[in-house]
Amino acid sequence: MAYNEITALWNDIRTLMQDVEADVYKNSEGNAAAGVRARAALRRIRALSSTLVKASTTTDKAARAARLAAKGGTSAPPDNFIDDDSGEHIQGRDARPKSRGGVRAL
To answer: Does the predicted model carry a pTM greater than 0.70?
Structure first.
């Protein structure tokens, strides 16, 4: 994914937002057909937003991998590393404490 693709997706979203604005106002005044057009455009905006997020994530990951490769490193954490919260040596994700009710168990 390239920077140009991300900006093109963003410009498409902005254009659709400008186009749908009139239909949203017409729908708020009772025009049902405008509501149908507005909802269809909002679904399209949602799909484009999802594509933009994926493109941005892919670009960021590729850039990170390229930086690490240039330094001669890897993107994976070492097998044994110290958990910042507890100071314990852990291996892999399974060794992390489980979350309970949105609060991380200690």
So the answer is: no
